[in-house]
Amino acid sequence: MEIMDKLARLFQRPEIPPEARSIFQGARDPAQLREGLDALRARNEINLQEHEERMLSLEGGIEKYEQQVRENGLGREGQDVILRRVLRMRKEMDNLKGLITIYDDNTGLLLNLVARIQEMEAKKAIGVSEGDIDSFLEGVDANFQDYRHMRLAGNDADRSRVVQAADRKDLDELRMRILTQQAVPGSSRRQRDVELE
Questions:
Q1: Are 136 and 120 a contacting pair, CB within 8 Å?
Q2: What is the pLDDT of residue 94?
Q3: I need a labelling partner for 102 at 20 to 30 A (CA). Which of 26, 113, 162, 172 fits?
Q4: Chain Cα centroid distance, residue 118
């Protein structure tokens, strides 16, 4: 049985991104499949980096706005405007975290697919038996089941972290946390994020 025939079952798994399935369906041989998957991985990587850059930009903007509130140069209405911006930016960051996780997971999945295809080609080239290649493919199948379970658990956690619309109480609580927080240069951003969640 040819490698592409053996891979057909793997590419029917729900964990495989639809774009990867489409590439598999259009590929004539394992080499063309690897090229297509690698191009898809590169696109995922570009999207991942764009979202990470936006995340960094938002984080810097939030720090700038928090500093404006700390310096207390604004009246209550001005602070409310800034605080609403901070809440919107945090909501966007929460959404980006989910996208970053998806792109990062997909990139890893595609890297694993390409590696497994290469391993199957190498095993076939050195004369490994069909049974051993089938056993190898079953192990790959089990890894994808584990991946799917992790993704489903991760999606539930991501959804629960999404920030709801700001109301007066949220604005006042955020203002108090920012105003009572000491502005220490080089302080841990992660610690502040945990305190503000």
A1: yes
A2: 93
A3: 26
A4: 25
